[in-house]
Design a protein that fits this description.
The protein is α+β, with helices and mostly antiparallel strands and 395 residues long. It has a domain at 90-201. The chain contains 7 helices and 14 strands. The strands form 3 sheets. Strands 1-10-13-12-11-14 form a 6-stranded antiparallel barrel. Strands 2-9-7-4 form a 4-stranded antiparallel β-sheet, with no helix packed on it. A 4-stranded antiparallel β-sheet has the order 6-5-3-8, with no helix packed on it. Helix 2 (88-150) runs antiparallel to helix 4 (204-221).
Length: 395
């Protein structure tokens, strides 16, 4: 039986396979070079979401809601009234505090007037003592002269008795004048202890009454709940006619110009990550057509599971290792955020350049400042009201 001839190799097919192998090897080399020189310097994750401050609107006083000036999804400006509480009780308390302040000012003013009257009274008592001393000296002189003449019969016994009575009367008048002077001086000392070193406006009693007016005024101003910041209203739960208590959440205001992204990176992705490194972000809302630029401003103190309501018990015998993720906060360029607004909770893709050294100073400037001036005006108006009441009762 003849042997089967061996087929000759196809030169074209061999060249094609060799070319394909060379292409794949070159692609592998290019990818390895790209990864070593560029790709390994970036860490990315799609486990990232938009976060923001949920500013809760809570009353500071108890009362009944009589008006709601906004609703969910509406944009509000800082200082804009959101909820109004019935001011009747606050009006009564403020009127009572104003009357008490006016009465206190008049009472304190009376003490200062009494000081002048007591000084005049003391001078008058001193003059009375001088007169009483002169009368006593004269009565004693007359008594001694008549007593000297009584032995020769020049003065009757009745006349001598009258002179003795005059001495005793003058002495009694002098003692009464001295007692009256001591009483006036004691009363003056008491008044001076209550008024020394202060003015009517700065007197402790007046300041205490003024503080009561200020507290009543603040309660009055707190019947209107303003928006602390610019933003959108969300989760309104309050209704007209509802009785609210201090601290109860009526609604939220979300400042969408102050949002940030919380990217949850795996443990191994944090080795070279530093505060201040640049980042690029994309949102599922706009797709790949919009790219945000941001900066890493902080790394959380622990993983999400560490702060969970029921944290993982890693020390138990049935432990299974799971790759943990640590939240990393990324600030977004405010101008880009203004052009393409985001909403809290939206998904994001984040990529951080870990080859950058990190600019901590720039990251610190990107931190959001949290403050509001909308509650400062009440204090100025309260001070003006107190000053007007004091002035009106000093005239």
């Amino acid at each position: 039986m003849s042997a089967t001839p061996t087929p000759l190799p196809n030169p074209k097919r061999t060249r094609l396979l060799v070319s394909a192998a060379v292409v794949f090897v070159l692609l592998g080399i290019v990818y390895a070079g790209w990864w070593f020189l560029y790709g390994s310097h970036f860490e990315d994750t799609d486990d990232a979401y938009v976060h923001g401050n949920l500013v809760q609107i809570t009353p500071q006083i108890a009362g009944t809601v009589v008006a709601i000036d906004t609703d969910d999804t509406r944009e509000v400006k800082a200082g804009q009234p959101l909820v109004r509480i019935d001011p009747s009780d606050a009006d009564v308390a403020l009127a009572k505090a104003e009357a008490q302040l006016a009465q206190t000012v008049r009472q304190v003013r009376t003490r200062y007037v009494q000081n002048d009257a007591l000084n005049a009274q003391i001078e008058m008592r001193k003059a009375e003592i001088v007169r009483a001393q002169a009368d006593l000296a004269r009565a004693q002189s007359d008594f001694k002269r008549r007593q000297a003449l009584s032995g020769s019969g020049g003065v009757s016994g009745e006349e001598l008795l009258h002179a003795d009575v005059a001495v005793k009367t003058a002495a009694s008048n002098l003692a009464q004048a001295k007692a009256a002077l001591a009483a006036a001086q004691a009363q003056l000392e008491t008044n001076l202890a209550l008024t020394h070193g202060t003015t009517i406006e700065q007197h402790p009693d007046v300041r205490a009454a003024a503080a009561a007016v200020r507290a009543a005024w603040l309660d009055k101003s707190r019947t209107v709940l303003p928006a602390p910041v610019d933003g959108l209203v969300a989760r309104r739960s309050v209704q007209v006619g509802q009785r609210v208590a201090p601290g109860s959440v009526l609604m939220n205001v979300v400042p969408l110009n102050q949002v940030w992204v919380e990217a949850n990176f795996k443990e191994g992705q944090l080795r070279k990550m530093k505060i201040g490194q640049p980042a690029t972000l994309k949102s599922d809302l706009y797709g790949g057509s919009v790219t945000y630029h941001g900066i890493v401003i902080g790394v959380d103190a622990g993983t999400g599971s560490a702060f969970a309501l029921l944290p993982a018990q890693n020390a138990t015998g049935n432990w299974i290792k799971v790759v943990q993720r640590v939240p990393v906060r990324v600030a977004i360029d405010p101008q880009e955020l203004k052009q393409h607004p985001l909403r809290v909770g939206l998904s994001m893709d984040v990529e951080v350049d870990t080859a950058a050294s990190g600019d901590a100073a720039k990251a610190a400037k990107s931190q959001i400042a949290l403050s509001t001036p909308v509650f400062d005006e009440s204090h100025a108006k309260a001070d003006a009201l107190i000053a007007s009441i004091i002035k009106a009762n000093l005239q």
